[in-house]
Write a structure and sequence with these properties.
- By secondary structure, the chain is an alpha+beta fold.
- It has 10 helices and 15 strands.
- It folds into 2 domains: 130 residues, 3-Layer(aba) Sandwich (Rossmann fold), CATH 3.40.50.10330; 169 residues, Tumour Suppressor Smad4 (Sandwich).
- The chain has a 15-stranded mixed β-sheet that branches.
């Protein structure tokens, strides 16, 4: 694996043709390296120009993305090899650069970006997409919490969903489920555990200036695309090109009924359950009257209060027709 210095010395020529890969070696409990090794074999066998950079710590994918894009103003294809957290870093690094075109090789536990946005299955199909350079501009969500601004491609949530994300990040079970290629099951197991310990609280939800006070809130998710937690269809009505964000609020229901929500969410049937509310809007605020974590694309970014807006057609991504 190249050192940081060696990575920086890599050629930056032919940026309009070269594919740039940013690999998170720790994603998928190191399963990302197997994904990358397979991808590299295919790239070399087809003599596809490419460069690879390996992350060494959290935030490194963000910095590498900025560094690559700051050296050119020509269309540049950057592919994250990892999970939704790695892709989130690449997105945040790419937002200031209109010449960025992004993609992802699924190598994490959830991979909801690939499932809900890119829509490729397998390494070979993804690489063909990247070489064909089929891309389109899609909406992005921007959030602000405690003075910090960031962006999300999948979802922004507060409540039990954020607790599950935090649990998954540090759970020793995660590596075993990733090893048997069943990473998304960890989210279901952690949900069942949190079901008996999480205490739903009171939240204020403001959508395009209209305020709603919700009691016994299990979670509120602001979504840009349908999927969360490794394939749960949390927001079936979310669309990538409508200039709006979809909001799902689950409140005032007993824990047994919440179990039904998390069963039917696998196919999006939870919207038929009472007190599972769906809204949409351009400007959304959430405020918890207590203590609650906030997640952005599965990463914990703050506590208790957050504002979000949609940025229509903000970034170009490689996307399967």
């Amino acid at each position: 694996m190249p050192t940081v210095t060696e990575q920086r010395r890599m050629s930056m020529q032919s940026l309009d043709e070269t594919l740039y890969f940013i690999v998170n070696p720790r994603a998928g409990t190191a399963g990302s390296m197997k994904v990358w090794e397979k991808a590299e074999r295919l790239l070399k066998s087809s003599s596809v120009p490419h460069e690879v950079f390996f992350t060494e710590e959290k935030g490194h994918a963000f910095r590498l993305t900025e560094e690559i894009l700051s050296r050119t103003d020509r269309d540049t294809r950057i592919i994250a090899v990892g999970g939704d957290g790695t892709m989130n870093e690449v997105v945040n690094g790419a937002l200031p650069f209109p010449h960025a075109i992004l993609g992802s090789l699924a190598a994490g536990s959830g991979n909801d970006y690939v499932r809900g946005i890119q829509k490729t299955t397998g390494v070979g199909q993804a690489l063909r997409l990247f070489q064909d350079n089929q891309h389109n501009a899609i909406d992005v969500g921007q959030y602000e919490t405690d003075g910090k601004v960031g962006y999300f491609m999948n979802s922004l949530g507060m409540g039990i969903d954020a607790e599950i994300s935090a649990d998954a990040d540090r759970s020793p079970l995660k590596k075993w489920f990733n090893f048997v290629k069943a990473g998304k099951l960890i989210y279901l197991i952690l949900f069942l555990n949190r079901l008996f310990t999480h205490k739903p609280g009171s939240m204020e939800l403001i959508i395009d200036g209209k305020s709603r006070k919700l009691e016994k809130v299990w979670f509120i998710v602001i979504a840009n695309q349908p999927y969360f937690g490794g394939g749960m269809k949390i927001s079936p009505l979310a669309k990538l090109h409508d200039g709006r964000l979809n909001v799902i609020a689950v409140h005032d229901i007993a824990w047994l009924k919440l179990l039904a929500v998390f069963i039917t969410v696998l196919w999006g049937g939870h919207l038929n359950i009472k007190n599972v509310d769906s809204f949409s809007g351009k400007m959304i605020k959430m405020k918890n009257h207590g203590t609650a974590k906030i997640q952005s694309d599965g990463e914990i970014v703050g506590m208790d209060e957050v504002a979000a807006v949609v940025l229509p057609d903000k970034i170009r991504v490689m996307i399967k027709d």
